[in-house]
Amino acid sequence: MKLLIMGPPGVGKGTQANRIKNTLNILHLSTGDILRDEIKINSNIGIKAKMYMDDGMLVPDSVLLQIVQQKISEPICDNGYLLDGFPRTIPQADGLEKIMQSINHKLDYAISLSANTDELIERLIKRGEESGRNDDTPEIIRNRQKIYWEQTAPLLEYYGKKGILKDVDGLGTISEITNRILEIIK
Ligand code: AP5
Ligand code: MG
Questions:
Q1: Ligand (nearest to CA of 56)
Q2: pLDDT in tens, 45-68
């Protein structure tokens, strides 16, 4: 099973991906997590990505496509994966399609989680106060939401037209939402 999970910051992509990967026994590939790991080791990719991430801006498409191409071409990915937070732009989606075609992979579903913006901002401000990422500050949280609607939301139509988009209500308890997703993809 090859899946992607999309939705605005704070909607629960990472939370749900972690649960679904265990149930389906597939890999969870979060581009946000991969980029944060690159920042930790101070790699060239990390140094470049940090400038964008600290402001809540998208890291350039070429960087993301290079990362994803390398990851999903590994033999372990033939069994299946769940892309979390990628693609985020139309060029990334086109690039993903080309990469997948070249290795004979087919995307089964694009799961789109949704929730109202007030709820999302509340969740992320709470996380910012408790554990917190660099980009969990009120100003950057708002910028991340804005970028989602400007640059990523067009992918809803993109995957809708391909007939693989599945809308899932992202409000409710974490396990209710997992069950909604599993119901759709089983
Ligand atoms: P990324 O790491 O993907 O962050 P994001 O999209 O901003 O989303 P989050 O990870 O904050 O939220 P989430 O939807 O995963 O929710 P979570 O499960 O954590 O990207 C970070 C940055 O990296 C980007 O801004 C960009 O700079 C760069 N980047 C990454 N990918 C890129 C790409 N493809 N192209 C370009 N740049 C890229 O949950 C959030 C909180 O809510 C948690 O505290 C959780 O416990 C809580 N929660 C979860 N579910 C529920 C629930 N049902 N009820 C109540 N609380 C809940
Ligand atoms: Mg996440």
A1: 1
A2: 999 999 999 999 999 999 999 999
Which ligand 1 atom minimizes the distance to the CA of 123?
42
Of the candidates 19, 71, 88, 123, the residue annotated as catalytic is 88
Q: Please write down the long-range contacts of 160-167, taking CB distance under 8 Å and 24 or more positions apart.
A: 162/110, 164/107, 164/108, 164/109, 164/110, 165/109, 165/110, 165/112, 166/109, 166/110, 166/111, 166/112, 167/112, 167/114
Is residue 19 among the annotated active site residues? no
Q: In the annotation, is 13 catalytic?
A: yes
- Closest ligand 1 atom number to CA of residue 36: 23
Report the predicted TM-score, pTM, of the whole model to 2 decimal places: 0.97
Predicted confidence (pLDDT) per residue in 101-133, tens digit = 999 999 999 999 999 999 999 999 999 999 879
* Ligand located closest to 127 CA: 1
Locate 17 and state its tokens: 């991906």
Angle between helices 61-72 and 90-102 (to 10 degrees): 30
Alpha carbon distance 141, 8 (integer Å)? 10
